[in-house]
Amino acid sequence: MSSDEIIFYDLPSRGTPKCWSLNPWKARLALNFKNVPYKTEWVEYPDVAPTFKSFDIPPNSPSLNPNAQYSIPAIKLPGNKYIMDSLAIAQELERLYPEPSLKFANNDYAPRMQTAVAGFWSSLQPIAVPRVPELILNPKSAEYFNTTRATRFGMPLTELAKSERAGEQAWKAAEQAMDLIVALLEENEGKYVQGGDEPSFADFILAGVFRFSEIVDKEGDLFGRVMGYHGALKEHYEACKPWLKRDD
């Protein structure tokens, strides 16, 4: 393996592996947008920590990720430099490959979008998370995911999916978050968060969570409902599709 080869570490889906999770999508969208050549290596959930420890990647700060010391995505950059976390990866890609720009400079759109998307995702987790082992994961990762998320949510995922937390109260909270997202999208003229004809990292934060909701959708009950909430959401997702094409 060349020390200059870029390797992107992602979580596999069943069958032919494809990107599915919202956090890897954010970094992968940045790679695709910048047209940086890279290879994907797929890492099952139980193998993430031992694999990344073997690369001497420092663990996550508890303030960044209180749930896991090691998490996907990570990347190996030229010179055998390893970075974990989608934002850190995107910022380093921007430094190494400044054009086309992810537009981090002199604005707060990425953190504002991250806050809005975190509220959206937090609201819909009781609906979406139980579908991950059901629809996406290989058995090795599904067992790990079911165990760790049952601890996190205080009940088995099969029970969470049937609970009131996965009902209309989830959507009531999600709609408040979607209103914040729509307001961000409407601040500037154009297809994207910062306006104009090219996206920024703020756009990829949003596109990643929309793509994930599309993957775990069942007959339009999740992604379809989100896209139908406001025209600006669907318009934005359609505008980001060119960089969602490569998912491997």
UniProtKB/TrEMBL annotation:
InterPro entries: Glutathione-S-Trfase_C_sf (IPR036282), Glutathione_S-Trfase_N (IPR004045), GST_UstS-like_C (IPR054416), Thioredoxin-like_sf (IPR036249). Pfam families: GST_C_7, GST_N_2. Signal peptide: none annotated. SUPFAM superfamilies: GST C-terminal domain-like (SSF47616), Thioredoxin-like (SSF52833). Residues 11-101 form the GST N-terminal domain. It comes from the Eukaryota. This is GST N-terminal domain-containing protein. It comes from Cercospora zeae-maydis SCOH1-5. The lineage of its organism: Eukaryota, Fungi, Dikarya, Ascomycota, Pezizomycotina.
